[in-house]
Amino acid sequence: MRLHYPDAIRVIRVPCTGKVDVLHLLRVFEKGADGAYVVGCLEGDCRFENGNLRARKRVEQAQRILDAVGIGGERVQMVNLSSGEGPRFARVAVEITEKIREMGPNPLKKKTGGKMAA
Amino acid sequence: MIVAEQKPIEEIIEMLKDFDRILVAGCNECVTVCEAGGKKEVGILASALRMYFGNQGKKVRIDEVTLERQCDHEYLEEIRSNIDQYDAVLSLACGVGVQFMAEKYFSTPVLPGVNTCFMGVTEERGVWSERCQGCGQCILGMTAGICPISRCAKRLLNGPCGGATKGKSEINKDLDCAWQLIVDRLKEMGKLDTYETLMPIKDWSTERAGGPRKIIREDVRL
Amino acid sequence: MSEKTPSRLEKILRAGHLAVTSECGPPRGSDPEKITRKAEMIRDYVDAINITDNQTSVTRLCSLAACIHLKGMGLEPVLQMVTRDRNRIALQSDILGAASHDIHNILCLSGDHQLFGDCARGQNVFDLDSMQLIQTVRRMRDEGKFLGGDDIDRPPRMFVGAAANPFADPFEIRVPRLAKKIAAGAEFIQTQCIYNLDKFELWLKQARDRGLHEKVHILAGVTPFKSAGMAKYMKNRVPGMDVPDEVVKRMSGVPKEKQAQEGIDICVETILRLKEVEGISGFHVMAIEWEEKVPEIVERAGLYPRPDPG
Predict the structure, then answer these.
(1) How many other CB atoms sit within 10 Å of the CB of residue B39?
(2) Cystine design at C281: which of A26, C124, C217, C296 (Cβ 3.0–4.6 Å)?
(3) Is residue C35 within 8 Å of C26, Cβ to Cβ?
(4) CA separation for the pair C151, C149 (Å, rounded)
(5) Residue A117 pLDDT class (50, 70, 90 cuts)
(6) Which domain holds residue C69?
(7) Which chains are adjacent to chain A, needing at least 3 Cβ pairs under 8 Å?
(8) pTM of the model
């Protein structure tokens, strides 16, 4: 659709959000990302039945862990939309980017210069 | 299998706060099945701990390994060559594995990352429940395959008590009354008349009460 | 059949009288006055007094000590003993302790789970269950032997009782359970308190059909409601209790000041109805913390004065 969404966003495509693991959501923050959002199909419309429901549970778990370790669980979010909702995707992208900018950068970037111990 | 639950991360952090080089060691068997300490859980926990210590400005090395089991010599030997690089191991194996590792690596602190709970089954993904307490003298043949020792809150051998309500235990309305289950099964098998057979007083000496247990099979020892 | 023990309760039952027993709960402290006062209130109206054993797992003065105080007053105690808190050594030991004070009645119970009480984090024992405890007392008495096989010096002479709850689930094994307790050696039964008379009479009929009423003395349990609130609480919050809606309605249908009397009336009516039923050997009036009403209930039920067992 060639709609504009913020440059700060890097899109990683997956065949279903059910493929996203809690570990992926944590690793991106380990490596210095400021936020992550998981965009899945509308609930009830998952082509693989409940991949997006599993994704939601994993996002919630990642939020709990990120809160517990002081990074901030709000930095990871689940969004549900249909693949035809291009304009909504763009809008959500802008909103989330704004929200994360307000939260400030990933605290790890300051402390470790963006590099974690191997 | 043995069912365990990961300790809250706050408790784990508290245990690890004085160490700089930590090995998080998982186990590929029971704790993998109950999603408490397998390779995946090791990865998630290690990532979380790195972020925590990083956020504290502390330089901590956190490595990951998942052994096939932690209750057999051969598998624990696999880390012998590099165990000295760590000043502590956080083991996500059940209490058995934690102890065996500690016995093997005598001078390395081995800390438990899970709470070991019971021997049980996977009822469905995410739900595990107790079935056996290892009394050492199995009576399942007399109780229609349902254990009154592990599933009755009062381990009555001649139950049910007077508190059972609508097939549920008096202590928790979500817990099945073991004796209701036994009676139902006896009925199903046409054996309800055996209900009146008095179950004799149990010999608990083969259970925890008799002291720590050991089994020796001379026929397979070298 | 001659009596097996010096128990006054046994004598009265064997003589064919309707027995009356009641219950007192020991205090949450060490003042014996708290229990002796309650027992004194009901002295002439009952044949024996049960002392509960850390009921609902709330820690109280032990049943054995309270029974000893009652013996000192010339009363007839029934030692309630649960298997929740003591292993077989302690159980046998306490039985001998009771016997050394000539306590001649024991009620064998498993006990409420400790999660209900004030020590929910404690261990429980359940080395034996109630049936196995019945067997144990009978063995100690009739064979004069400890569980381990050694001889007992001056075996206990106790009249052995058990509880029965016709209202707990599953109903279909409640009479088989009664039969089991009799086979284990129970000589008298005290039932859970009765509000659902139809269900109780059904259970009793099934027991009669098997001749169980002739093998054991069944004492029907009754408890007067103090208020409609108590009726509702017992209906909804007490496991194994059956309080029919009509009974709750009857209690609620009366103004608050009259509810206590209504509760007593229902209790008396229950006793009067059950007196006519074959298989009932007596009544167990449980008016915990309301012992002062026991005399009225016993009198109005036509059970006063109590017979002299001679």
Answers:
(1) 17
(2) C217
(3) yes
(4) 7
(5) very low
(6) 8-300
(7) B
(8) 0.92
ipTM of the complex: 0.91
**Cβ-defined contact of A23 to B57 (cutoff 8 Å):** no
Report residue A31 CA to chain centroid gap: 14
> Number of folded domains in chain C?
1
Asked, as a colleague might, if the bond just before A6 is cis with ω within 30 of 0, I would say no
C85, C128, C132: which to substitute to probe chain B, counting the most B Cβ within 10 Å? Answer: C132
CA atoms of C87 and C132, how far apart (whole Å): 12
Q: Is residue C306 part of a domain?
A: no
Which A residues in the span 1-30 are in contact with B, Cβ-Cβ below 8 Å?
Answer: 21-23, 26-27, 29-30
The total of structural domains in chain A comes to 1
Distance from CA of C196 to the nearest CA of B (A): 16
- Say which CATH class B2-118 falls into: alpha beta
For residue B7, the Cα-to-chain-centroid distance in whole angstroms is 13
Domain ranges of chain B: 2-118, 133-207
Give the per-residue pLDDT at A112: 59
Question: Is residue C310 in a domain?
Answer: no
Residue A7 counted as domain residue: no
Mean pLDDT score, C104-125: 96
Chain B residues inside the 8 Å CB shell of A107: 55
Structural domain including A77 reads: 17-112
Q: How crowded is the C-beta side of B192, counted as CA atoms within 13 Å?
A: 14
Determine whether A113 is exposed, middle or buried from the number of CB atoms within 10 Å of its CB (0-12, 13-18, 19+): exposed
Cα A10 from chain centre: 10
| pLDDT higher than threshold 60 for residue A8 | yes
Kindly state whether residue C305 falls inside one of the protein's structural domains.
Answer: no
CATH number for the domain harbouring residue C102: 3.20.20.220
In a domain, A117, yes or no: no
Averaged pLDDT of chain B: 96
Cβ–Cβ under 8 Å, residues C108 and C141: no
Q: Which amino acid is at C240?
A: G
Does position A51 have pLDDT exceeding 80, yes or no? yes
In this structure, of A73-87, B111-125, B177-191, C50-64, the range with the lowest mean pLDDT score is A73-87
The number of residues making up chain C comes to 310
The percent of residues above 90 in pLDDT, for chain B, comes to 95
